[in-house]
Amino acid sequence: MGEILKEGLFWAALGRPSEVIPFLRGKLLSNGIGVDNRRREYLEYLLDDLERFYKRVSWSGEIEKRHWKALKSFHRDIVSVVYSRRA
User: N or C of the chain: less Cβ packing under 10 Å?
Assistant: First the structure.
């Protein structure tokens, strides 16, 4: 998961912020998360927020230390939702 998020960050810095999001949505939302609507809704919210984050990185055109920190936070939140029994 972390490597995919990092790849998305690099694509965003290159001006292509939406390269990884469709893949993540497909993998995460079709992986049995749909059983619990609250978890699915929260995961969709996180992915929407991640997409907006990648767009902001794209506008800056470079990866800064604060972007790495934010990416770690997204990773933690997404993994938490995927592996928890409830959101």
Answer: N
Residue 43's Cβ-side half-sphere holds a number of Cα atoms within 13 Å equal to: 27
List the domain range (segments joined by +) for residue 52. 1-83
Q: What is the pTM of this model?
A: 0.87
- Give the contacts of 12 (CB within 8 A, at least 6 positions apart): 54, 55, 57, 58
- Rounded Cα distance between 47 and 32, Å, is 16
Residues 72 and 34: their CA atoms lie apart, in Å, by 24
| Residue 1: pLDDT over 70 | yes
